[in-house]
Amino acid sequence: EKVIFQSEFLLLVLDSFLPDDSQKGIGQQEINARGKAYLSDYSHSPYKKFVKEVLIYELGPSDIGWGMYMGAGYAQMAGSVGDYIRPDVPALIGFDFFYKRWVFGFKIIGGGGDLINDLDVNGQDFPQKGVDLNPLGGGVYGGFKVLQSNRFSFYPFAGIGGMSVSPVDSDRSGNKKFDLGTFWYGGGAALDVLIYKSKEPTRGSYYYAIPMFMEVGLKLSYELYPVSFEESNPEISGIYHAAGFTIYMNFYNAERK
Which of 181, 175, 85 minimizes the C-alpha distance to 130? Predict the structure, then answer.
């Protein structure tokens, strides 16, 4: 058996050093397959470390990555703020950064809205009729993936940021502009559903691009933030609820397994 595993090892080493375009050259994938077979057949071989660390060369996604997502959702104001401001379907866009199971990112939530009751802001009276609003929120957040499988990942997150509400440029009320602003902190949760994952790393169009693995999927999210607008009379406050349905693309650096 010693002679057999030595000869098998020498053949494997010889083939691995032949160029792929030579007459007898074989590709790295075949070298990997033969190397794994060698480790399985000769698990006590003194050459197994060399085969595993030198001859077998496979790339996999690293623990570090980044991603982006965009889509639409549903928003609602609860509390006294909901008696005056009604947001429409918001657009969501965000960027994520990954380290192992940790997720850090920032997002923007924006869309149209309506003033549904007369509101006094800094001494100016704004009638509900004809006032179209631009609610815009955003901030940074961090979370941890408590569930991570080949298809799904779920993580709660906490975030801080702010929100402003002002009339759109095409406001028909004839009143002066106003701006309601609030700092917010809160949190939520997100579920990522994987649709596609590249089996081999892809490289960008320029020479020094780092090979990366790509993932594409759907992100379902829900979050809530307390809001309070002190500029209005009466002061209005409540909870901003937002649900998101977005498409994400994640990228992970390729590294040797």
Answer: 175
CA distance 212 to 210: 6
Residue 48 CA to chain centroid, in angstroms?
39
Please tell me the distance from the alpha carbon of residue 104 to that of residue 96, in angstroms, as a whole number.
6
Any idea what DSSP says for residue 257?
-
Cβ-proximal residues to 129 (8 Å cutoff; 6+ apart), any chain: 173
Beta bridge partners of 103: 98, 143
For residue 42, which of 13, 69, 8, 72 has the smallest C-alpha distance?
8
Cα-based distances in Å from 132 to 98, 161, 196: 38, 23, 40
Q: How confident is the model at residue 178 (pLDDT cuts 50, 70, 90)?
A: confident
Q: Both ends of the chain: CA-CA distance in Å?
A: 30
> How far is 252 from 214, CA to CA, in rounded Å?
7
Tens digit of pLDDT for each residue in 76-87? 999 998 888 888
Distances, alpha carbon 80 to alpha carbons 8, 72, 88, 191, 241, in Å: 78, 25, 17, 30, 14
Instruction: Check if the beta carbon of residue 253 is closer than 8 Å to that of residue 212.
Output: yes
Amino acid, single-letter form, for residue 122: N
Measured CA to CA, the distance from residue 254 to residue 54 in angstroms comes to 17
